[in-house]
Amino acid sequence: MTAPQSPTRVLVLNSGSSSLKYQLLDMRDSSRLAVGLVERIGEATSRLVHTPLEGGGERRERTGPIADHDAALKAVSEELTQDGLGLDSPALAAIGHRVVHGGLKFHAPTVITEEVIAEVERLVPVAPLHNPANITGIRTARALRPDLPQVAVFDTAFHTTMPEAAARYAIDVETADAHRIRRYGFHGTSHAYVSRATAALLGKDPSEVNVIVLHLGNGASASAVAGGRCVETSMGLTPLEGLVMGTRSGDIDPAVTFHLKRVAGMSTDEIDALLNKKSGLVGLCGDNDMREIRRRIDEGDERARLAFDIYVHRLKKYIGAYYAVLGRVDAVAFTAGVGENAAPVREAALAGLEEMGLVVDAGLNAARSDAARLISPEYARVAVAVVPTDEELEIARQTFELVTGDVKKGVPDSPTA
Questions:
Q1: Measured on CA atoms in the order 298, 300, 301, 303, is the torsion positive or negative?
Q2: What are phi and psi of 400, to 5 degrees?
Q3: Residues 28-47: pLDDT tens digits?
Q4: Handedness of CA 103, 104, 110, 113 (dihedral sign)
Q5: 69-82 vs 131-144: helix axis angle to the nearest 10?
Q6: What is the SS3 assignment for 229?
Q7: CA pair distance 225, 417, nearest whole angstrom
């Protein structure tokens, strides 16, 4: 009699305040069986888009009110069941949840318990926009499949290896500790995936490679990864710090906030909205789409040119700083929407850095491809790579390894954030 096959599928959930993104993967070959999105949850115009990928199924879409995340996940389950991929399938090994903020308590993927949820709730003050939505998704999924292992994979986890000299801000220690103020970093699943994929592209083990990873999307962050461990990252207590982004300012003199309050009479909420939603590229030129900015530059638009120059200047400054932090750099990897698709950004960010061994081959840089690839010439001392990120696969991989391997389950022992 043939023994039953062990479950190999992982459902990855990314819960936003009014959205639910999902992917179902088979970890035998990392293939995607289905992908989808529920958006505008809680509105009359809710929309579910579902695409079954196994067997060449057709994309399906439905609109109409979806009251809450519970209803959204049930609707997703119905779509998956229609394709023979339902949440009640014995082939489903686990559900992996993206959780934005894990503080210092969680430095690895963690099997979700009530104690874990309580700790994630305790971190809401430092992630008020993200952690509540993540918790909602977790509670909804646990209610639907209470028997199934569910795993939290934290955006901040990859950055918990930063030394204190990089993670601490130079403010009063007692005040910082009392309010959990330090650099946590974000986009950690992307930085983990891309740094490892870059090492593979070079034919080396991650422990042998020092990489500067540039995750450039509407949100943008940089990291310095030494031998597979993050030693510095650009985002801080929140995702506002660091690079110029689509709508976020990135680095700014903190006294600007005092000035706006005292001189402009702006409230804390107004300043928060200004720096997070009305700054960055959109604040500089009115657009946060790099394709549109480049089109405007080609037509001679000076505001678009200045926005691009400021964006690149900040990016180049971080590349140089992280080169100094690492001491030796084997590769610089560009990823995410802008990093993977905007050849002019890659070219401009590394222009003038030839003495540091950073050179881009114009032809390779201009060529379009969805594959991980090198865009530096063979003689270059430092490899320059374009590596498409895959945060869902990274979450699925970490989830599957935890529930099927020998990785320690539960809350890791570490300082409390």
A1: positive
A2: -65, -45
A3: 999 999 999 998 888 899 99
A4: negative
A5: 50
A6: strand
A7: 22
**Would you say 215 and 389 are in contact if contact means Cβ atoms under 8 Å apart?**
yes
Q: Please give the Cα distance from 124 to 297 (Å, whole number).
A: 41
> CB–CB of 382/209 below 8 Å?
no
Report the helix count and the strand count for the chain, using DSSP H and E.
Answer: 15, 14
- The kind and range of the H/E element at 20 are strand 19-26
Per-residue pLDDT of 97-136, as tens digits, reads 999 898 888 989 999 999 999 999 988 887 787 888 889 8
Query: What is d(CA 22, CA 131) in angstroms, rounded to the nearest whole number?
Result: 17
Are the beta carbons of 257 and 240 closer than 8 angstroms? no
Place of tokens 């962050």: 221
Cross-strand bridge partners of residue 35: 23, 51
Query: What's the residue count for the chain?
Result: 417
The residue written with tokens 């990016």 in the block is 315
What DSSP character marks residue 405?
A: S
**Which active-site residues does the annotation give?**
155
The answer to whether residues 361 and 345 touch, using CB atoms and an 8 Å cutoff, is no
Give the C-alpha separation, 54 to 57, whole Å. 7
Residues belonging to the binding site are 14, 21, 98, 215-219, 289-291, 337-341, 391
Looking at residue 263, the DSSP 8-state letter turns out to be T
Query: Residue 158 is which amino acid?
Result: F
Q: Give the CA distances from residue 308 to residues 42, 144, 314, 353, 366, in Å, rounded to whole numbers and listed in that order.
A: 37, 47, 10, 18, 18
Residue whose C-alpha is closest to residue 279's, from 315, 251, 313, 318: 251
Give the single-character DSSP code of 385.
E
Strand-pairing partners, residue 153, are 98
Inter-helix orientation angle 302-326/343-350, to 10°: 60
Distance of CA 162 to the CA centre of its chain: 17
Name the one residue in this structure whose structure tokens are 């030839």. Answer: 354
pLDDT tens sequence across 316-368: 999 999 999 999 999 999 999 999 999 999 999 999 999 999 999 999 999 99
Q: Which amino acid is at 57?
A: G
Q: pTM value?
A: 0.90
Work out the burial of residue 89: count CB atoms within 10 Å of its CB; fewer than 13 is exposed, 13-18 middle, 19 or more buried. middle
The residue-averaged pLDDT of 398-409 equals 76
User: In 260-340, at which residue ranges do the beta strands (DSSP E only) sit?
Assistant: 331-335
Which of 348-354's residues contact partners 24+ apart within 8 Å by CB, and which partners?
Answer: 348/308, 348/312, 348/316, 349/214, 349/312, 349/315, 349/316, 349/319, 350/316, 350/319, 350/384, 352/316, 353/316, 353/319, 353/320
